[in-house]
Amino acid sequence: MTNNYETVMGLEVHVELKTKTKIFCNCANKFGDKPNTNTCPVCLGLPGAIPVLNEKVLDLAVTAGLATNCEISRIGKQDRKNYFYPDLAKGYQISQDENPICHDGYLDIETSRGKKRIRINRMHIEEDAGKLIHEEGLGSLVDNNRAGTPLIEIVSEPDLRSAEEVLAYLQKLRAILTYTDVSDAKMNEGSFRCDVNLSVREAGKEEFGTRVEMKNLNSFQSIQRAIEYETARHIKAVESGEELIQETRGYSQDTRKTYSMRSKEDAADYRFIPDPDLMPIIITDEKIEEIKESLPELPDARKARYTEEYGLSNYDAEQLTSSIEVATFFEETVKNGANPKSVANLIITEIFRLSSPEDFDVNISPAAFAETIEFVDNGRINLGSAKKIIEIIFENPEKTPESIIFEEDLEQINDRTILGKIIDDVILHSKKAVDEYRSGKEKALQAVIGQVMGKTKGKANPQLTIDILKEKLG
Length: 474
Ligand SMILES: [Zn+2]
Description:
Blueprint: E1 5-16, H1 55-67, E2 71-72, E3 75-76, E4 79-82, E5 92-95, E6 102-111, E7 114-127, E8 131-135, E9 139-143, E10 150-156, H2 163-179, E11 192-202, E12 212-217, H3 220-240, E13 247-252, E14 257-263, E15 273-274, E16 281-282, H4 285-294, H5 299-310, H6 314-320, H7 324-335, H8 340-354, H9 366-377, H10 383-395, H11 401-408, H12 416-429, H13 431-438, H14 444-455, H15 462-473
Parallel strand pairs: 12-13
Antiparallel strand pairs: 1-10, 1-11, 2-6, 3-16, 4-5, 4-15, 6-7, 7-10, 8-9, 11-12, 13-14
The chain binds zinc ion.
Residues 22, 25, 27, 39-40, 42-43, 148 line the site of zinc ion (ZN).
């Protein structure tokens, strides 16, 4: 369907910065506290209250800029962006119009088509608004704890062409922000939020199609589905000659559809004016050098190290470096003595099934995980049992791999004689599959192996089972 069309996307990512206090006052910058407990006249937007910029916000913005190959502005200002929201008491948000702190950077992403460079147009600082809470029976309430939370907005160029590229870009950006400790970048807590600007044009055309901005995309899955839905909607409109309008659209997880929210504002509607209460921003060369020196090992460097040091594939290394939590868990497990390739395999296949890399929260210690992997590598249990152990520990973290092997009777059957007898019995009762295999159908062996696994409650040594079967079936 999309062969004759090209989807063109650019992203606006809002990131809450990991500062102790808010951007213009001393209130705590904390998620999850009782509503309206972290507020003061400044972040409530009361008349006469004077904002003072938190210097840490600049440090973190410059850190994020340097880590994404941006140029850093030496002089900046902050502007009032006017709009009316019930959770924005001042009637304007303090943001940056011209002179963003960082500009002209890029990120390299890895997709199934290889490496691609995505350009970053700009990165500016701004304050977050409060939050509306809609309560049945109580109406709409405002929680101002979030008002004045420091943000950076990272705007990419329209270089993205598929949902896969968008997700790879977000994953890389998220990795960089967590490695550098700029943000905890949790999508489920709203500290990492993404708006997608999307248009569709006929392949080969220079000019862009009508652009929509999609908001309320609060998971990687929603982003992917919204892009797919919206692309199909645009193509249909183009083919039927229907006119698309430039607008802001939301996405509903329930209907899996996008819906119109409002017509898109133009920059002129915001009536930007420099905020007279705030001093100009000056960033010195010394400051930039100091932050450059303090940058940690970034995801791309770590990925290169994993491929060299541990012999991992590009793909595996990319997965494992996608967040600092995953990378730390991997390295801690290896430090506990487990084989790096086995660790990588089990994290990507099993641990990611139980906890996604974006919201990585594992309930198993690196030591217990390493021990489980070693039991597989030395033949005491098989891979299926290892997965069972990991699942049980996720539910009951007080248990050890050793105790679970005992309780669940998971010890692998490595004894040729014992296994041989079981296999003789299976062969006797699986005439059809055996005949098929003997007549040249290699695949039929899987059915027989399945029978052996069933009989041994999954404890048979898989390789030994195959060897014995092949001997016996000649
Ligand atoms: Zn405050």
